[in-house]
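Workshop exercise sheet. Pairs work together: one partner reads the sequence aloud, the other fills in the structure field after running the prediction. Swap roles for the next sheet.
Pair: D.N. / O.F.
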Amino acid sequence: MSFDVLIKGGWVLDGTGAPAFRADVGITGDRIAAVGRLTGAEAATVIDASGRHVMPGLIDCHAHGDALVFDPEVQLAALRQGVTTFVLGQDGLSFAPASTPETFAYATRYFAAVNGTHPSADGPLSVRELLAGYDRATALNTAYLLPHGTIRYDVMGAAERAASPGERAEMLARVERGLSEGAVGLSTGLEYAPGRYADAEEIAALCAPLGGLPYVTHMRGYGALAGTGMAEVTDIARRSGAAVHVSHYHGPASTLLPLVDEARLDGLDVTFDTYPYLRGSTILAMVALPSWIPAADTDRALELLESEPVDWDPALWRRITFSHVPGAEWAEGLSLPVAAAKAGVEPGEFCRRILIDTRLEAGCVTARPDEGPEGEESVRAILRHPGHTGGSDGIYVGGHPHPRGYGAFARMLGRHVRETGDWTLEEAAVHLASHPARRFGLAGRGLIRPGQAADVLVLDSGTVSDRATYAAPRTLATGVDDVLVSGVPVLAGGELTGATPGRALRP
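Structure field:
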């Protein structure tokens, strides 16, 4: 027997939830060719996995690598955790489909602190063109959700109202085209502009053509408002018949999990992703701007910030740490009160100045109200739920990002398997690989078996750990040194090989 790559002597976690078994894995081309005792087999590349586990490549169900997936530092951060696929187009805002330069510019500018600036694309941009740009240009696979906010802006601009029947028809045509070009679902960001102005009727209409692919939503409320958010989610699911997937589902488990269970008992197909941290991260404008300032109209928002008094909520100040402040990088990593004191102004005035000077581009890490001992127990309970899939919500923009992009999956494989016992390794392979592959229609991925795509990692289960912290967020994880994407080694000895076999995945 001869293979291109042979992974020898490891304990295979095949992604089905079955117990690990000792086996070799032979890879030919971009596919797994054989799994078993491959005695006498030869290969151009041999990886000794003795004492380690062999798993299907992990799928990050919520990543903001839309622009930065091309960055080798981001690829290394993901691969060192065993992540081989990013699901992009999250929270209703990304680069395509944009039929005008204005739409592309809006999506880029409004979410610059989240998605970054695309290194080569410019508007107009179709989903087909965006996916073609990812294909074989990075070490990671990419899958893409149609961003509702971008589509809405393309049709309606910054309008703060319900869509007319004609406008819904125009948006629906863009959804249908995007799906035909390879999108794996539809996303909304109902706390961001302009998605926040849509109602359930509009969103349900756009979900109609999904055909089993998921409607993925940043809900209209989390934590104490999760009941309101989930009521809208289930309303949309009933109206459209779509499968639904809730992004970064966080808050008190005693409130959140019964909402999921009730929906599933009602016959609705509901899943969710979450990350194992108590703090969040987003754009400063979403956290701080009062609702009367039109965030989707940047020029008008800046005009109002310059001319009108703002009744800021001072309870926010201690919750905000700056992650991305172009032009005032010295503030990155500082809490808002500390940065304001350093600048010699009151926190409200400093916040106003930062929003104006960055043209709403600033980003922040935010403490959530549920942070504390109860919050940690809620995180653990939510991870254990069978509807859970792994998502880092990784944001890689700025000098001091949230550590989740560098550590979420390693934290789940280390702390939540080895230390707390929330999962077995077999269960981890389901939550982080096979279940996400099914959810996003990525057939042929998420399992270790012949015929499957050869996205494979070799894991040292005794040492895998996240090392990224809020103080040092860009610290790489440990415990994953060898990773293949489409049969090609992309991480060897813990270092990038320079290969870029990542595919733009289509359902």
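Discussion prompt: The longest helix spans residues 165-180. What would you look at next?
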